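Inputs:
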Amino acid sequence: MSTGLGLIFIGVAISYILGIKFLSSPRTARLGNLLAAAGMMIAILATIPMLRGINSPAIPHGQNLNYWLIGIGILLGLIGGAIGAYTVKMTAMPQMVAMFNGLGGGAAALVGILEYLTRYHAGLKITVPLAAAAFFPVTIGSISLSGSMIAFSKLQGYLERPVTYKGQHVVNGFILAVIVALWVYLLGFKDSAAIAWVLLAVSLVFGVLMVLPIGGADMPVVISLLNSFTGLAVAADGFVINNISMVVAGTLVGSSGTLLTLLMCKAMNRPITNVLFGAFGKVSEKAAAEAGTKTVRPIQPDETALILANAKQVVIVPGYGMAVAQAQHEVRELVENLIARGVEVQFAIHPVAGRMPGHMNVLLAEANVPYDFLKEMDEVNPNMDMVDVCLVIGANDVVNPAAKEDPSSPIYGMPIVEAYRARTVIVMKRSMATGFAGIDNSLFYKDNTRMLFGDAKATLKEVIAQLKAL
Amino acid sequence: MSAELLTFFVFVLAIFLGFELISKVPSMLHTPLMSGTNAIHGIILLGGMIVLADAETTLARVLGFIAVAFGSANVFGGFMVTDRMLQMFRRRKS
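Outputs:
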């Protein structure tokens, strides 16, 4: 690399660092993303003079074809990526990120194996560190690709429930052992193109098996983890092709993604091992026994409107149900109406509400709700006793008092929005089905809770109509 | 210091930098942050371009082409979708 190009790539690395830094404040986040994107454009352009044969007076045989393929490949990806990015619904954002992440992981795996194969077929000596740096993305990138595709299917609703079977841990452990054995063979004994392909294939299988048992509610953690996997795979590719900006960018994503993953697990009060290996779905015996005997108190939209109109302070807790019903615009209309009546309204956002951390913030932002209405759980909980009405829209596990009261519950210990402490709780819900964690919710049976059944969007429309008529 | 060791040095520093950079992100921005960093690892596109330029067999061309297309979708789609999300975040009008 020439000095000039080297300096350009240092600038590019700085654009990523500042980009990630700016992404951590709502005022500067957009600028941060644009900065990183500009850095990326420069990096792509600066790579062109580094391509083989591009500076030689006589272009080597077959090289023109390669240049054409590069151009067409970039164009295809650009068109596909743009269509995905601009047509995806905000509710489907987690799937979209999973998809892009998987593609990145697949690319990293292919670059790794191609670098290895090229050296192998040319009969070049492959040192152990170089081989390790090439096999790392082959393994981790493949896991990221197939794992992300399973995560995508789950979030898209093709594969709702966790897939579990007896001896699952043994099977997964065995596949992992095979991967380790392949590494030992390739690094310690013999270079082999065929075995490198086997490594890629087995890693793909492992990615599928790893994500299959994990429930939909835990997909945010999985995507975040796979995101950091892809980052590290890219960094390793950077070692192999000796491109330091890839090392920096990949590592930044890898380490920040790992921290983000751990922060999410902390918000759910579950260790990462529990998310990855302890499939949810066991029904708490206490909650199951209660569900059989207790009854809920339904409420109608007209009465709901009356209660809301007469409240001084209202807290809204949105959840995945709001996203599914696409009800965020009606929620904003309701809030505007209440504010016009002098009601004080706040949103209480649980860090893992929805299928992605911060998912609710994105949806409400789409519906033009200014972000200073949105409070984090810890800001709202201390004053919950003063709240007249807590309106829960399609949230379930994040308001389940079992997290505080029932040590036998699988979500025991998870911090929740303490909706049950409000004077009146109105829960909007399609039916009495359990949340993604598959556990019953004792909030629904409390004396101060009213259940407003129906599709969130349609029901909210009725409530708004009744409010206007008051 | 050898070139490999220097690269490794950069790698280790970047690990710490990544941790420091996002230790104070509010949870409201976790989705755009995940999506934005997701776009950044699309830099694998550079790797794909270099590998495809080196390709001499049909197999290498096919695989390199897939790598470039995947990497390109990762980069462009990732940044666009993040921008689309972030342009919606706004403060209360006062």
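Remarks. DSSP finds four helices and no strands in chain B. The mean pLDDT of chain B is 86.
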